[in-house]
Amino acid sequence: MSETADPLVLDFVEWVAREPRAYAEVIATWKTSCPRLTIWEDAADRGYVARETLPGMGLVIAVTEDGERLLRTNGR
Length: 76
Prior knowledge:
By secondary structure, the chain is α+β, with helices and mostly antiparallel strands. The protein has one domain (7-74): Orthogonal Bundle (Arc Repressor Mutant, subunit A). Helix content is 47%, strand content 18%. The protein has four helices and three strands. Strand 2 (49-54) and strand 3 (58-63) form a beta hairpin. The chain is globular. It starts with 6 loop residues before the first helix and ends with a helix. 25% of the residues are buried.
């Protein structure tokens, strides 16, 4: 795994790190019409965020330990 990330992936991981985000919120906020711009999917594929089910919230996207490490490494 690379410790550097493109700025949009870093922005996304930082946004999720503030609090677990409902899956629907992630889709609505980070959707794109460009198939080459898959920011949240790239972050998930790299292990920076993961899907979890939380009581009362349902399916959420949360930052992983690797995501937290990425943020620290990049001064965020």
